[in-house]
């Protein structure tokens, strides 16, 4: 071993690395290696998050009684408002199910939900990813949708034993199918690589999309659950001569401020074969691509 | 030196673990550009100090660790670190007699070339968003930190008798 030439070892390492890269890009066979290394990387990620945790713990311990009372009052008010909304929701949900039954399609609303804490951000500015503190042990699966209180933020792309990695909707390699909540116009929402900007792709110049429109997930790529708010249109730029309008949107979720996220079951409970959309004005290039 | 029994593998692993920790510690967005390549710097120190023990294969495994830590394509940093360790192995005799400034310049080139290789891989899988000159910032930060890291790790090496 000690007599062997480092140049040979370099060659072996280079070949191995290239083989690994190809395996990782094209096949799922490299996943076990990631999984095993995950036992070693997770402690570093947890430790790196420790100062944040400690600061939060200290501030909680030193909160005054008056602050706590105020907090409680505010939360009570919020609960009241939310309960009132839920009451309406129950009626709507029942009605929705009934109507769907009439249409012979199955509803897929509820799924199991898991709460996770964000323990890390990707150090590489080229990538918009976060690390959460739940892994395969807690039942996290690849492809699960990730939500924050205000809206969708991304999907699980890598599951380790103790932590998982979430690709954010703002990553330049991410695209998902959305529709305008107001009128059901569908389009592809792609990340730009910048933290707060998304772009609607291939929207015809004549499509009815306005500033302030809410974009919700359609569930068409089978990755994200249907009907969660994703983004809000901030600018619509009609350029003469261009085939498509230039539409920018901002994520509804406050990704840079969130500390906890929800993991939702992304696969529909049952496929809905007879589910037809009444809106006929889908974009011509509306191929639903989702994921990386 | 090579006649002595090797010792202190655990200490090397602990320093590498701490370097990995610094690699993912959250930084303000603007400072993130200046995040030095801690793992590579620590790896290069150990290659420089113990070239008969720490070499290309160490580089490969540490690179894989970096890959999983930051979620890049498996093999991206393994490739870069193997090459970094190889260059250091080729240059360690000269590095030991170089004055501080010259050492810093060589480290700048070594870190730069291995980071450029990693960038090429990232670019080829379509995950590079910012132009390539942006890796210059972190490479500069790495070069500036080389001498302090050498001082700290030399102390560790003598204190815990790593050989």
UniProtKB/TrEMBL annotation, chain B:
Give GO BP annotations, semicolon-separated: regulation of cell shape
- The highest taxon in the source lineage is Bacteria
Q: How does it sit in the membrane?
A: Multi-pass membrane protein
Database matches in Pfam families: MreD
Its localization reads: Cell inner membrane; Cell membrane
Under the heading InterPro entries, the entry gives: Cell_shape_determining_MreD, MreD_proteobac
Give the CC-aspect GO terms: plasma membrane
List keywords of the entry alphabetically.
Answer: Cell inner membrane, Cell membrane, Cell shape, Membrane, Transmembrane, Transmembrane helix
Q: Which residues span the membrane?
A: 6-26, 38-62, 74-92, 104-122, 134-156
What protein family does this chain belong to? Answer: Belongs to the MreD family.
Function statement: Involved in formation of the rod shape of the cell. May also contribute to regulation of formation of penicillin-binding proteins.
Q: What is this protein called?
A: Rod shape-determining protein MreD
Q: Its gene?
A: mreD
């Amino acid at each position: 071993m000690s007599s062997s030439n480092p140049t040979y070892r370099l060659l072996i390492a280079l070949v191995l690395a290239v083989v690994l890269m190809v395996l990782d890009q094209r096949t799922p066979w490299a996943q076990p290696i990631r999984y095993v290394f995950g036992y070693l990387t997770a402690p570093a990620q947890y430790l790196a998050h420790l100062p944040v945790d400690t600061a939060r713990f200290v501030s909680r311990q030193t909160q005054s009684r008056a602050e706590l009372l105020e907090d409680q009052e505010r939360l009570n008010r919020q609960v009241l408002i939310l309960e009132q909304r839920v009451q309406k929701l129950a009626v709507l949900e029942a009605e929705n199910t009934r109507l769907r039954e009439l249409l012979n399609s199955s509803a897929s609303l509820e799924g199991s939900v898991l709460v996770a804490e964000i323990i890390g951000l990707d150090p590489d500015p080229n990538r918009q990813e976060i690390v959460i503190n739940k892994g395969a042990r807690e039942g996290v699966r690849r492809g699960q949708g990730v939500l924050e209180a205000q809206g969708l933020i991304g999907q699980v792309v890598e599951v380790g034993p103790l932590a998982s990695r979430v690709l954010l909707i703002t990553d330049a390699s991410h695209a998902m199918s959305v529709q305008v909540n107001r009128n059901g116009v569908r389009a592809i929402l792609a990340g730009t690589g910048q933290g707060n900007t998304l772009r609607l792709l291939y929207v015809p110049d004549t499509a009815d999309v306005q500033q302030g429109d809410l974009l919700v997930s359609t569930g068409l790529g089978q990755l994200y659950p249907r009907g969660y708010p994703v983004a809000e249109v901030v600018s619509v730029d009609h350029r003469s001569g261009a085939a498509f309008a230039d539409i920018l949107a901002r994520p509804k979720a406050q990704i840079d401020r969130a500390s906890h996220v929800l993991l939702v079951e992304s696969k529909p409970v049952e496929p809905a074969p007879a589910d037809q959309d009444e809106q006929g004005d889908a974009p011509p290039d509306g191929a639903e691509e989702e994921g990386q | 030196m090579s006649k002595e029994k090797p010792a202190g593998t655990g200490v090397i692993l602990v320093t590498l673990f701490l370097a990995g920790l610094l690699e993912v510690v959250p930084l303000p967005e603007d400072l993130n550009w200046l995040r030095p390549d801690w793992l590579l710097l620590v790896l290069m120190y150990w290659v420089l100090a113990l070239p008969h023990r720490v070499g290309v294969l160490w580089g490969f495994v540490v690179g894989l660790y970096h890959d999983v830590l930051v979620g890049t394509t498996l093999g991206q940093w393994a490739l870069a670190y193997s090459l970094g360790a190889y260059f250091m192995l080729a240059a360690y005799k000269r590095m030991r007699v170089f004055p501080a400034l010259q050492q810093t310049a060589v480290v700048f080139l070594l870190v730069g070339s291995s980071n450029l290789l990693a960038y090429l891989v990232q670019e080829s899988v379509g995950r590079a968003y910012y132009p390539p000159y942006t890796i210059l910032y972190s490479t500069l930060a790495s070069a500036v930190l080389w001498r302090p890291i050498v001082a700290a790790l030399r102390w560790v090496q003598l204190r815990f008798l790593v050989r």
